């Protein structure tokens, strides 16, 4: 089973993905690493100092080699992971008021911070994932430790949740600030 761990930059995807794989022995992949492996970094966004990845081509490559049932669980971490052929999407959320401090600490330019906070406040990744009719498990990581957040994405036996289950979040207060 392939699971995308997605969400706006800074919400805690990498922390969660690494903890999940360390805890359960799952395989950890990243969108960035897959793009490098397959030669799909097609440019560089100078303004945001970010790689441009051909996600359509990466989709086709992964689609041609689906994860076999006996190969265990594979996590793909990245803010575009929900655009890839996966069996479930784990969508991590974070209150924009908290996310702002994390993105500032990363040294993002002001415009990039604002774009990402708005995307988070307006459920952009959820809308994108819903368009593709995928199983989405959404959890708010704002006030959970990484361990508590991981527990919210697995059942009592440690099996990954893989049917749609959206924990409500409401950051309209941030939008109306
Ligand atoms: P992402 O991979 O979504 O960009 P990250 O895992 O790198 O995010 O985490 C961004 C920052 O937030 C990093 O400084 C660690 C911190 N962080 C991650 N998960 C957290 C949590 N559950 N509670 C508090 N801080 C968290």
Small-molecule binders here are:
2'-deoxyadenosine-5'-diphosphate
Q: Taking all residues together, what is the mean pLDDT?
A: 95
* Main pleated sheet: 6 strands, parallel
User: Could you tell me how far the N terminus lies from the C terminus, measured between alpha carbons in angstroms?
Assistant: 41 Å
Q: How are the strands of the biggest sheet laid out side by side?
A: 2-5-1-6-7-8
SS content category: alpha/beta
Shape: globular
Report helical residue fraction: 25-40%
Count every helix, treating DSSP H or I runs of 4 or more residues as helices: 8
Order of helices and strands: EHEHEEHEEHHHEHEH
Strand content: 15-25%
| Low-pLDDT residue intervals, each spanning 5 or more residues | none
Radius of gyration: 16 Å
- Number of DSSP strand runs: 8
Give structural notes.
The chain is built from eight helices and eight strands; from the N terminus they run E-H-E-H-E-E-H-E-E-H-H-H-E-H-E-H. It is globular and about 50 Å long. 39% of the residues lie in helices and 20% in strands. The protein is α/β, with parallel strands linked by helices and 177 residues long. The strands form two sheets. A six-stranded parallel β-sheet has the order 2-5-1-6-7-8, with helices on both faces. The protein has a two-stranded antiparallel sheet with strand order 3-4. The mean pLDDT is 95. Helix 4 runs antiparallel to helix 5. The protein binds 2'-deoxyadenosine-5'-diphosphate. 2'-deoxyadenosine-5'-diphosphate is lined by residues 7, 9-15, 102, 141, 144-146, 149. 2'-deoxyadenosine-5'-diphosphate (DAT) binds at residues 7, 9-15, 102, 141, 144-146, 149.
């Amino acid at each position: 089973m392939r699971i995308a761990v997605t969400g706006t930059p800074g919400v805690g995807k990498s922390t969660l993905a690494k903890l999940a794989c360390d805890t359960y022995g799952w395989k950890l992949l990243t969108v960035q690493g897959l793009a490098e492996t397959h030669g799909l970094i097609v440019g560089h966004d100078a303004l945001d100092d970010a790689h441009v990845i051909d996600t359509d081509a990466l989709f086709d490559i992964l689609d041609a080699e689906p994860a076999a049932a006996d190969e265990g669980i594979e996590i793909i971490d990245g803010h575009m992971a929900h655009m890839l052929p996966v069996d479930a999407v784990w969508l991590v959320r974070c209150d924009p008021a908290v996310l702002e401090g994390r993105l500032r600490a990363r040294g993002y330019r002001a415009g990039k911070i604002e774009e990402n906070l708005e995307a988070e406040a307006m459920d952009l990744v959820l809308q994108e994932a819903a368009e593709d009719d995928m199983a989405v498990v959404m959890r708010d990581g704002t006030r959970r430790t990484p361990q508590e957040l991981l527990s919210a994405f697995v059942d009592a036996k440690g099996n990954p949740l893989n049917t749609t289950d959206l924990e409500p979040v409401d950051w309209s207060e941030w939008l109306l600030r």
